């Protein structure tokens, strides 16, 4: 009888084990389904502490490029249970003051741009001293490691410029105008320098006040009227491409308008042939990956790049690509 009871016990235990395994598997699937549903509904997909991350960019007000960067960062923040703070100023001194204010708030991580690196150096040193991890995005790849950032996420601006020069060569262009809309932005200088390096024709820089679109339009128009040999105009931001198209019409010019960066208007312009090509550096990805990487660093001490930039571009986008990207551009993620 003892033997029978023993085998009966083993059989019962086996049955219970199978039942428990089934419950565990079902429970795991339900938990995974719940996590996916939470993410789709805008709730956190993780249960890590609610860390606070601040992002400070050199964006001017109303710049659609930075709206896309911010959208990516905010989406990642939802997924990662992050309290996300955002501030911006197009002047280096004021941007540094905003960074300092986040340091004073004892944020758990910082995301910053280094368009004007000299103005930001002391603030990043403060962050490092306070033990706050920093990710740089978009601009400042050359200074990022020197200033103590964990990683830089964006495109190499000179390489992006070189891609533009090569694309202009493919299109048979001979004389190009590179329109810089923000004085002192090292990334903008690098873009035009890169284009000049690989372009077989001649390239001139034109400096305009990017906060004043009528000034941008009149500046480009005047240059096109003065030199009918200009057959390509390269703007350094998506909002300026449409203005360049208007300037071309004012000047009755045949120059092709090309641009860095992508938004809904640029996608439409590519589709209609009003624009020749755009250089996409995937701003949504820059914001998203910066938040995600800080979360990974806080959670698991993960770092990407090995001290080198994590590249999100450049990608040359033309009329043939516009259709598939237009949907994403209209929703504000490309």
UniProtKB/TrEMBL annotation:
Principal localisation: other
PROSITE patterns the UniProt entry points to: PROKAR_LIPOPROTEIN
InterPro entries: Bact_Solute-Bind_Prot2, Peripla_BP_I, SBP_2_dom
Periplasmic binding protein domain ranges (all copies): 53-296
Superkingdom as given in the UniProt entry: Bacteria
TM ranges: none
Pfam families, alphabetized: Peripla_BP_4
Subcellular location: Cell envelope
Similarity remark: Belongs to the bacterial solute-binding protein 2 family.
Protein name: Sugar ABC transporter substrate-binding protein
The organism of origin for this protein: Streptomyces cavernicola
């Amino acid at each position: 009888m003892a033997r029978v009871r023993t085998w009966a016990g083993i059989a019962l235990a086996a049955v219970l084990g199978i039942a428990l395994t089934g419950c565990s598997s079902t429970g795991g699937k339900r938990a995974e389904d719940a996590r996916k549903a939470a993410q789709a509904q805008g709730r956190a997909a993780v249960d890590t502490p609610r860390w606070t991350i601040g992002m400070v960019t050199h964006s001017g007000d109303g710049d659609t490029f930075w709206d896309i960067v911010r959208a990516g960062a905010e989406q990642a923040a939802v997924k990662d249970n992050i309290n996300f703070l955002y501030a911006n100023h197009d002047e280096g001194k004021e941007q540094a003051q905003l960074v300092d204010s986040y340091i004073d708030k004892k944020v758990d991580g910082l995301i910053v741009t280094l368009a004007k690196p000299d103005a930001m150096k002391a603030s990043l040193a403060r962050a490092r001293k306070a033990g706050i991890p920093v990710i740089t995005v978009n601009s400042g790849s050359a200074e990022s490691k020197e200033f103590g950032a964990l990683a830089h996420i964006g495109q190499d601006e000179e390489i992006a410029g070189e891609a533009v020069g090569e694309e202009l060569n493919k299109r048979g262009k001979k004389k190009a105008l590179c329109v810089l809309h923000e004085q002192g932005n090292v990334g903008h200088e690098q873009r035009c320098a890169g284009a000049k390096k690989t372009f077989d024709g001649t390239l001139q820089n034109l400096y305009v006040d990017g906060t004043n679109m009528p000034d941008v339009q009149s500046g480009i128009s005047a240059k096109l009227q003065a030199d009918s040999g200009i057959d390509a105009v390269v703007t350094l931001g998506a909002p300026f491409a449409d203005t360049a198209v208007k300037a071309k019409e004012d000047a009755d010019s045949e120059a092709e308008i090309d641009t860095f960066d992508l938004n809904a208007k640029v996608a439409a312009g590519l589709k209609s042939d009003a624009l020749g090509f755009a250089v996409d550096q995937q701003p949504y990805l820059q914001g998203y990956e910066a938040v995600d990487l800080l979360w990974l660093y806080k959670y698991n001490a993960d770092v990407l790049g090995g001290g080198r930039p994590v590249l999100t571009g450049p990608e040359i986008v033309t009329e043939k690509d516009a259709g598939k990207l237009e949907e994403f551009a209209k929703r504000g993620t490309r």
